[in-house]
Amino acid sequence: MLQRLKRLFSSQPQPETDGHGIVPDAVPNHVAIIMDGNGRWARKRGLPRIAGHRAGMNKVKEISLAADDIGIKVLTLYAFSTENWKRPTEEVEFLMRLPEEWLAKELDTLIARNCQIRIIGETEGLPSHTARVVQDAEEKTKANTGMILNIALNYGSRREIVAAVKQIAQDVQEGRLSVDAIDDAAIAERLLTRGLPDPDLLIRTSGEVRLSNFLLWQSAYTEFWFTDVFWPDFSREHFFQAIRAFQGRGRRFGGLK
Ligand code: IPE
Ligand code: IPE
Ligand code: MG
C-alpha cells in the first residue's frame, strides 16, 4: 500500500512488477546456484548426511519451476564438484544415484515445460549408470526451446579452463589458430558453457562465501547473493528474494553508470 502511494507521488516512473515484486523486463538471463548445506541440514536434525542429500534433491524441482515461471533462460545448478570425490565412498555412491532417481521422477515435467537439460562436467569420470541417465535426458530434451537446466556434475572450473588451454595449444600447433587470434571469445567457446550467456546472478546457500571452483571464468561480472539458509530449506520465496536483490543492484562492468 505504502509502496503504491509512494509510486503514485513519485516523479520517477517506477517499473511494473509481478506478484513477487520482480520486474519482468529485468529478470536475469542466467542464474547459477551452489546448492550447499545438505550435510549440515541433516546433522541439525540428527539424520545421516545422505538424508540431507535426498532432501536437497527434492528442492531442485521447486526452484527449477520457479526459475522457469519468471522467465529465466538458463539455470545452472552445481550438483557435484571434481573435488567432491574426496568424500566417503558411501556418500559419493549415494550422490551418484540421485540423478537417476530425480530424472525418473521429474523428466516428464521438464519435457512438458519444454526445458532442455544439459550437463557440464566430466561425464567420462561418472559411473556408467549415472552417465547413461544424464546423457539420455540430454538426448530427449535437446530439441526443446524453453529454459536450459544446466547441471554441473563432476564439474570443476580449473579443469575446464585447463582443457580449453590444451585445445588452444593443439589448435595453434596444428595451424588452425594463430596466437594473435587468442582472445576472450577463443577461450569462452572452448569452455563447457560455450554458447551460454555468463551468469548474471550466482546464489550460494548455507552461509559459505566462496566459489569452490565453480564458473571462475564465467563469473567475472556476475552478481553474488549469499544466504545462511541450507539448500534443503531454500524455497521459491528465498529464490525470488535473491532475484529482487539482483534487480536492486547497479551493474557497471567497469564503466560508469
Ligand atoms: C551440498 O551439500 C551438496 C554437495 C556438495 C554434493 P554438502 O554435502 O556440501 O553439505 P555441507 O556443506 O556438508 O553442509
Ligand atoms: C560446492 O560445495 C559443491 C556443490 C555444492 C556441489 P562444497 O560443499 O563441496 O564446497 P566446499 O568444500 O565447502 O568449498
Ligand atoms: Mg558443502
TrEMBL record:
InterPro entries: UPP_synth-like (IPR001441), UPP_synth-like_CS (IPR018520), UPP_synth-like_sf (IPR036424)
Catalytic residue list: 36, 84 (proton acceptor)
Residues at which Mg(2+) binds: 36, 223
Pfam families associated with the record: Prenyltransf
Keywords annotated in UniProt: Magnesium, Metal-binding, Transferase
Enzyme class: transferase
Binding site residues for substrate: 37-41, 49, 53, 81-83, 85, 87, 204, 210-212
Gene3D superfamilies named in the record: Decaprenyl diphosphate synthase-like
Domain of life: Bacteria
GO cellular component, one term: cytosol
Entry cofactors: Mg(2+)
One GO molecular-function entry: manganese ion binding
EC number(s) per entry: 2.5.1.-
GO biological process entries: polyprenol biosynthetic process
Details of cofactor binding: Binds 2 magnesium ions per subunit.
Family under the similarity heading: Belongs to the UPP synthase family.
UniProt function note: Catalyzes the condensation of isopentenyl diphosphate (IPP) with allylic pyrophosphates generating different type of terpenoids.
Assembly: Homodimer.
Family matches, as PANTHER family: DEHYDRODOLICHYL DIPHOSPHATE SYNTHASE 2, DEHYDRODOLICHYL DIPHOSPHATE SYNTHASE FAMILY MEMBER
Name the record gives this protein: Isoprenyl transferase
Species, as recorded: Tumebacillus flagellatus
